[in-house]
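Minutes, project check-in
Item: structure for the 302-residue chain
Input as provided by the requester:
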Amino acid sequence: MVAVLFSGTEINGAQRWLTFGSYSIQPSEFAKPAFIVILAWLFGETGSQSEMPALPLGLALWALFGAILIAQPDVGQTVLISTTAGFLYLLAGLPIIGAAILVLLGSGGMWMAYIYFPHVQSRFDKFFGSAPLESSQAGRAIQSFTEGGLFGRGPGEGVIKSILPDAHTDYIFAVIGEEYGAVACVALLAVFAFIVARALRRASSERNAADRLAIQGLALVFGLQSLINMGVNIGLLPPKGMTLPFISAGGSSMLALSVTAGMLLALTRWRPDPQRLKKPRWIPAIDEVQLGGANSINMSER
């Protein structure tokens, strides 16, 4: 992510990608699940390792990660990561006064982003202003749901996607709404909700604090990203370039989400209780002198 700031490829005013020949990757996508797991471990160690400065290290890591994202700039990912980290702070049972300070800092950060980033100011002004214009992406996305109705026009029959620039990424949910209808949208929302709810339920039975927080954090970042994308598509949130997990096109996003899901599966799999595991009793090899004759065992063969 640091290399991106010096040699990254700039697209639409943002410098977030590293190019390798004909391929490009977005390092921040891969850093998200790693950041969540490390932060969960640090917050989990705060209560059990009093001699370790886990909380200051966690907050410093959080601030460093957010600063690099802002430098790109990527305000949406910063909001997603900070919201998830804030939930982890509360779930770890850390002091409530610290949570209040973090909320104030987050509010101040959003105000600074509004002041210093023209694209953020423009999006907020349009969102809180009048109804979205039909010519804007937000207006066309809302029109897609209107045209789709309850059961949609049918697969491949959508027409608004042809004039929607980001129909394959940020506004893929609107395309689903037009072609498959509101029923399919609700079903997709239910699938995402089931994954998050199942992971959180499994986390509640995890004894290790770091593992529990990591499961909760990965589930939350997955669920929040889904909600942000859907919220933007239906006009509940200001426009933000964020993919819909496993649905939107995008190589880095798809691979990073696969890593996130893999971590979540690894952490939530059932493991035997370590206290009940016993090493098998070691039986020394029988010396062939003791056996003798035809019953002897060739030790080299063994």
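Outcome recorded: The chain has a mean pLDDT of 85.
No further action items on this chain.
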